[in-house]
Amino acid sequence: MESLFFPKTSVQPDAKGKDLPMYLRMTKRLLFETDKRLLWKLFWNMGIKGVRSVQKHKKRLGKGEFFPPYLYISIINSCNLRCQGCWVDVAAKQEKIEFEALDRLITEAKAMGNSFFGLLGGEPFMHPQMLDLLEKHRDVYFQVFTNGHFITDKVAKRIRKMGNVTPLISVEGSEVISDIRRGKEGVYGKSLQGIKNCIENKVMTGVCTSLCQSNYNDLLTEEWIDTLIDLGVMYTWYHIYRPVGPEPSEELALSPEQQLTARQFVVDMRVKKPIVFVDAYYDSQGKALCPAATGFTHHISPWGDIEPCPIIQFSKDSIYDERPVKEVFNESAFLTDFRKVAAESTRGCIVLERPDLLEDLVERHTAQDTTARKKAMAELKAMEKRSSQYNPGHEIPEKSWAYRLAKWFAYHDYGVYKKHFELSNWEDHREKEFASAPQKPDDLVQIKL
Ligand code: SF4
After folding, report:
1. Sheet holding 317-318, edge to edge
2. Rg of the chain (C-alpha set)
3. Looking at ligand 1, which residue's alpha carbon is closest to its atom 6?
4. Atom 1 (ligand 1): residue with closest C-alpha?
5. Cα–chain-centroid distance for residue 132?
6. Average pLDDT for residues 369-393, to the nearest whole number?
7. Which of 238, 283, 311 to mutate to test the pocket of ligand 1 (most atoms within 8 A of CB)?
8. Burial bucket for residue 322 (CB in 10 Å: 0-12, 13-18, 19+)
């Protein structure tokens, strides 16, 4: 089995003066490693139309209306894996959003100007009609969050032909760590094969990692980034692991210091390595934000429930409502109140920092538990308050002009924190976590074996 695993290193990148060569190298990669038709589709559907969709979003906000410009849609609950800390009921009876309902949702969102959608699961490639759906909507762009196991050469060829899809394949560590995180042997190898199938077919491919204690030292390294570049991966995304759901695995969560190091690493690598780094939790000045609180995105569950975000499994609204989806979003008192409550209390993650406020919100609106297990409220009550990406006094602004510009235009708080946030509302949980996190991956392996 080919290994992508590298020994741990301490990374202190010095990116000064390396901007230009990096941009040239990135341009070279885009010109010589991609299919130009796919590159054009990405530029047009996600770039140009994406700009328009953000402008429409801003216009709506100006008129006191609301519809998120980016939707996460979990199209199916089933998955072939059983990952540590997963909050989705993957072993429950299969539930999926049928083609017709997805088609209606995407058509109506397109009418609002949306041009970019995130598809999640479970494992989205287990949805039998997903590719037909993507094929039908070739005028917009889809990012599919996947473990890559179902991306055979034939599937990759179809994705290339369509040209409007980028698989974001998750890799959770070395072969050993990855297989433990994901509950099965051979997971790593199959994900790697999925990546290779995509790249051999010149599909725009990303790799994401849910950064936690067991992969932090191995994957938050320059060597790992170089490996991705050598493989032909075009972009990467470090999520920060969030201990939520039925088995929260708190021992895997990063300390505030580690989160800060991860942020610094991403900012440094953005001006050093010819690969795109996605992140969802900071604006151009390095100020934390929550994409659900800002209204940039909300989530649809496999049951069609409209939720604030994938890990907040409560809802008052559904895509199966007879009203147009734009009315459902615009008139949702639950989502409106969520955005206000979240923005009032923190610039970070309300789930991690203030589960008590979420409890109040859910009770106030009599929102329904949208899980199959029907224990979401008990799980919320059992959560310990902890810190998140909000770490005031430690903001790390973007060094790269390209990211600064992109975030300045499209990825910021849309004024919500100015309107709602008061520092005096914020609870600081950073101190208690500094000394508590386990550091040796071996310790963590034993926890779950
Ligand atoms: S509530 Fe937390 S997990 Fe959900 S979008 Fe906001 S920061 Fe992310």
Report:
1. 276-278, 235-240, 206-211, 165-170, 141-146, 116-120, 70-74, 297-300, 305-307, 317-318
2. 21
3. 290
4. 349
5. 24
6. 95
7. 311
8. exposed
> Please, which residues have CB within 8 angstroms of residue 201's CB and are 6 or more apart in sequence?
153, 156, 157, 159, 160
Ligand 1 centroid – CA 292 distance (Å) = 6
Q: What is the DSSP string of 267-288?
A: HHHHTTSSSEEE-SSB-TT--B
Phi, psi of 209, deg, nearest 5: -135, 135
- Using CB atoms within 10 A of its CB, is residue 25 exposed (0-12), middle (13-18) or buried (19+)? middle
Ligand 1 and 357: CB distance under 6 A:
no
pLDDT tens-digit readout, 309-355: 999 999 999 999 999 999 999 999 999 999 999 999 999 999 999 99
The lowest-confidence range among 23-32, 76-85, 183-192 is: 183-192
CATH superfamily of domain region 15-425: Aldolase class I (3.20.20.70)
Q: How far apart are CA 136 and CA 208, in angstroms?
A: 27
- Asked if 58 and 103 count as a contact pair (C-beta separation under 8 A), the reply is no
Residue of 242, 283, 349 best suited for mutating to test ligand 1, as the one with most atoms within 8 Å of CB: 349
Distance CA 125, CA 355 (A): 32
Q: Does pTM surpass 0.70?
A: yes
Q: Which of 234, 66, 180, 196 is nearest to 444 (CA)?
A: 180
Please state, rounded to an integer, the average pLDDT across all residues of the chain: 91
DSSP characters over 35-47: -HHHHHHIIIIII
Tokens coding 44: 């047009």
What lies within 8 Å, CB to CB, of 159 at 6+ separation is 131, 151, 165, 167, 198, 201, 203
Location of structure tokens 């101190």: 431
How far is 267 from 93, CA to CA, in rounded Å? 42
273: which 2 tokens?
A: 């390595």
| Residue-wise pLDDT tens digits, 233-289 | 999 999 999 999 998 989 999 999 999 999 999 999 999 999 999 999 999 999 999
Nearest to 239 by CA among 207, 268, 271: 207
The finding on whether 351 has its CB within 6 A of some atom of ligand 1 is yes
What is the distance between the alpha carbons of residues 420 and 168, in angstroms, rounded to a whole number?
34
- Residue nearest (by alpha carbon) to ligand 1 atom 4: 309
pLDDT at 178: 74
